[in-house]
Task: structure prediction
Amino acid sequence: MNKAPRIHDIAHLAGVSTATVDRVLNQRSGVRAATVQRVLQAAAQLDYRTESGLVSSTPALPAPMRLAFLLPAGQNRFIRMLGDMVNYSQEHWTPFNVRCRTEFIESFNPIELADAVRRHGQRADGIALMALEHPAVREAVAEVAASGVPVITLISDLSNSPRTAYLGLDNRAAGRTAGYLIGRFIGPRPAKVALIAGSRSYRAHEEREAGFLHVLSEMFGQLEVVGLREGHDDSEQNYAQTRSLLDQHPQLAGIYNVGGASDGVARALKDTGRDQKVVFVGHGLTPDTRALLIDGSLDAVITQSPQATLASAVRIFVNVREGRPALSGVESTRGQVIFRENLP
Result:
């Protein structure tokens, strides 16, 4: 007579450990949905019987985890690309049993963002947002986190908040990198440089500015910073701010665009015939910035992978759901400096 199948037999057939089989059969958390399915199929194939009867190969999986990504609307093409990627990559999240959606919030409006956090906190199982540094946003995040909904900040962090994790660059280091590049490209001669930010309401932009100024004062004392303008990640505003800077400082030698909409800066440089003379460093590798790198109006782009950012966000939410440390298996965000000659 054939012996009754054992947990060891199921583990061998499914290609997993006996501990994993035990967790699945006893309906404990901590196992990916695809692995659960494989274990149950193996158990059903072997006619494994529990106290309640034969194991079914079609488990009743819990409802998908609902994840909301709240990102600023506007002309920052890297942010738009990130949000669109959330929506059209649903099949990638199927093994994790999550459902993701993006909502674009009015840019630089902390009250609108705080309202969206509270609204999604009532129906989502996790929220990821690009945070504005504002008490209203901090209070909304605190309320949602207190209700048991994990919150992740993306690209720009939120100080003194109970968010679960931050996914993004070390923005002070990014600003120092931009300052180092511009300083080295210009060389030892005295010169003037300028910054254009989306808004200092983003902690990321504020930290990039601080890192940039610090490295210039530390290593490139011959460079004079002639001010910081806010362009709100808008192409037309960035164009107007750059034209104003060039009119005031005809010999301007470098520009660091702390935020998005680098195309507006590049257009102003081209219209004044300065695109091959002013050292220009920006953020976010997109189709637009690729083209600017190729034509030489943009010298370098500091960027991060949107795909890796989203994958890490989903993994953090799944870790929280399954009782693991939030950052278990999550790599820190890697920044890249892209030039025309090393375009991926």
In short: The mean pLDDT is 91. The radius of gyration is 25 Å.
